[in-house]
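sorry for the late reply, my laptop died twice this morning and i had to redo everyting from scratch. anyway the thing you sent over, i finally got around to it. pasting the sequence first so we're on the same page, its 487 residues, then the predicted structure underneath. double check i copied it right bc i was rushing
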Amino acid sequence: MNETELAYMSIAEQAKLIEKKELSPVDLIQTYLDRIEKWDGVLHSWITVCADQALKQAKQAEADIAKGNYKGPLHGIPFGAKDQITTGDVPTTMASIIMPDFGEGMTATAVSNLENAGAILLGKNNMHEFGKGSSVNFHHGEPKNPWNIEREPSHSSTGSGVSVSAGLVSTSLGEDTGGSIRGPAWANGVVGIRPTFGRVSRYGGIMYAWTQDTIAPLTRTVADNALVLQAIAGYDEKDPLSSDRPVPNYADTFTKDLKGVKLGLVREMSVGQELHPDVEKMLNKTLDVLRSLGATVEEVSLPKVKYAIPLQLLTSDPDCAAVYLRKYLRPYWDKFDVGTRTRLAAAALVPATIYNRAMRGRALVRNQVFDALKKYDALITLMNFEPPLKIEDSVEKLDKKEDLATRMYKGRRICTYPFSVANVPAMSVPSGYTDEDVPMSFQIAAKPFDEAMMYRIGHAFEQATEWHTRHPDLEKTLGPALKSAAE
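ok and here's the structure:
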């Protein structure tokens, strides 16, 4: 086993070796630290790396395991956290230069749950400033897609997706309001979930879209994702909006086939749209695999999902602006990235009457999604109508009316916003690569609190395909950039 093979192993594989004492958590942590030092100068997926702290905790984990005090499959496993998720003494910068630490010593419940399971915080991942997904200039370096640095790594939880994909950490916690986990998962070829609202405590997450924000993991496999979500999910008295519903053992629901599973292919978010040829080819192959596993796939129309885009922007953005405007936006206007401050300032101008109507409009979209889920076990969509764009084409700007359709209706938003507005669980699963070796994914959405069904479908698909076994060749994609920088 060489360094690259170890770095790209699933959590499950790493855990087996650690439990057998064939792999030291110290060696695993050091492997990732070495890779971060070598590659992250180009990738910019980290803001803070806790090298000394992580190694100290890894030595303690190794000693505990040697004494027979093995805590389970996350013991000794390193994780990252999007830098809007608080981590105690480790600073939470929000990818901003306004202040060095927004966390004030707070530790998010999701982080505490992972640490209680024996996982080790490796550091804080880079992101779009304040988690708004609109940054133009990045204060801590612009994250790059490890498959092709000329292509976008998507938005918001960017560093979390990049670091997991590039083999710089075993897993990372991200935050998803409108697609901020699912987007980076799609662009970087990893698995990312938006859980049901309330499934995971949001305590310690610095985020203010009160009716939509979620914290969840990005991983290299579906099984790993289920493992991490199970560790962080559950009721938390610190978050009054968290659910007290029991958290099932997701791995118990895994099956080799999907016999008896009925899937609805959402027409407005897949077939019948203007698709990139590689995406269309990938979708057809994905549907063939699902059917070969025994699933029934039928087309279903949800005409109201297109309204999720304005409804999302008219509700979650004003929620954030209501908190940020007086405390940060006005006094620190010049310190914000122009993309972030423009989006927040525009949101602050939304009248309360419009916000109220938009919140009621969300219920119409939600009801249509719910009606479809009464008929189907899960809904299937694309994650995007085209592969990840070139970075210069992905910058969020609207110079003319025609840009609105291109940026809003033909991109990721039409595929991710409807499930955010409906607050149902949704997951991005790698499902192919373009002729230029750029990742593509499809999306699974399920009934509220039925993450188990999503995991069952995603895991069966994953085991029937090869996509989760492919990883970026960093020597090929980043080597020239490192050589150029050295010269």
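The chain has one domain: 3-486.
thats about all i looked at so far, will dig more tmrw
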